[in-house]
Amino acid sequence: MKFTETAWKVFNQSIEDYHVSDDVNTLIDNPFEKDSLERILYAKNWIDTVQWHLEDIIRDENIDPAEALQLKRTIDASNQKRTDLVEYIDGWFLNKFENITPKPEAKINTETPAWAVDRLSILALKVYHMSLEANRESASEEHRRNCQAKLDVLLIQKEDLSTSIDQLLTDIENGNVKMKVYKQMKMYNDESLNPILYQKGQQK
């Protein structure tokens, strides 16, 4: 089974498991073995799925401002966890390919494997929710038809992105692409880098 086939299957299991309760406060119950790639992928998509629904909630025009502020902070924390896990996945790939010597003419890709996997995880969520809308009985026929057209495009995108990821991994394994990882230097959560946070600390 290709990597992306495994990833897509795991992502959809995570999405289905979340929607059993459909509650952003539901704790993850990861069914995969410790240290397995599947366990990492499941955790990654669970974060994405919870954040997807947090983003829905915060867009409620009638939301209490205090609740919205708390949700914004929750989303910021979720974004940090998402970034950390993407970097962890890249670390997994670095270990996998540590004995590969890139060819002298090896190219450098515009994104690492894990950031491409991040896009695949989000795409799985888009496909799931667009499919719900394309089949929602309470919606108009026009709405369902429009959503089905969008779903068709998303499924093409899924095939293209999956092919690209698998090709990238093959190219790295064959030494045709050099895997290079840059840590995402998030500034907004860092008290030493965010001016609002460090100026507040200096005033104490």
TrEMBL record:
<dbReference type="Pfam" id="PF14063">
    <property type="entry name" value="DUF4254"/>
</dbReference>
<protein>
    <recommendedName>
        <fullName>DUF4254 domain-containing protein</fullName>
    </recommendedName>
</protein>
<dbReference type="InterPro" id="IPR025350">
    <property type="entry name" value="DUF4254"/>
</dbReference>
